[in-house]
Amino acid sequence: EAGVAQSPRYKIIEKRQSVAFWCNPISGHATLYWYQQILGQGPKLLIQFQNNGVVDDSQLPKDRFSAERLKGVDSTLKIQPAKLEDSAVYLCASSSNQGGRDSNYGYTFGSGTRLTVV
Amino acid sequence: GNSVTQMEGPVTLSEEAFLTINCTYTATGYPSLFWYVQYPGEGLQLLLKATKADDKGSNKGFEATYRKETTSFHLEKGSVQVSDSAVYFCALSDPVTGGFKTIFGAGTRLFVKA
Known about the structure:
The complex is a heterodimer.
Chain A lengths: L4 E3 L2 E4 L5 E6 L6 E7 L6 E7 L2 E4 L8 E4 L6 E5 L8 E8 L12 E2 L3 E5 L1
Parallel strand pairs in A: 2-11
Antiparallel strand pairs in A: 1-3, 3-8, 4-5, 4-9, 5-6, 7-8, 9-10, 9-11
Chain B lengths: L2 E4 L4 E4 L4 E3 L1 E4 L5 E7 L5 E7 L5 E4 L2 E4 L9 E3 L8 E8 L8 E3 L3 E6 L1
Parallel strand pairs in B: 2-12
Antiparallel strand pairs in B: 1-4, 3-9, 5-6, 5-10, 7-8, 8-9, 10-11, 10-12
């Protein structure tokens, strides 16, 4: 099966500019996650979708970050305006829903988008 | 809240050496435990998992046993190869109290020398 697709792979922007990342999960995976991985740290969850509904966005900086998954498939994560501290790799992951205990089966991650804010 | 602590790196070993990367966790429920691996320039890949106490996860020569009594899930491999050089992340997911999300440790970088 095809993996989780993300684009672009790299992006360099100036602070206060806007940027958007795209993710296409594995076909049939109902749950989609966006993680932020700052250099030298583990991934931190930004937002979790179940189909096209938000399950958890408690750690999403909502004043500048937004995400959507309108048709329950692809997802877009946006930052507007960007700050220097947003420099990180943004990872998208998906998992199948096994009666709500899908977290027991692990995630499939995309290769990520490396964002550099200068 | 739930958390994962793993040993700091980098860990540098010679080829065929024995590997241990320590991981301990804090959880209020009964979490599932995972090891993910991140090769240079790539996303995270699930390496192995264990869903209940005393389970042993294994894959590609790596093993980890879910120890509830010591709240640990240490990663081991008997003989490492240069191709094992990567960053290893310990993680937990607690569907009951953690809302289905996975929490990751900070990662341990492994260098294997030929």
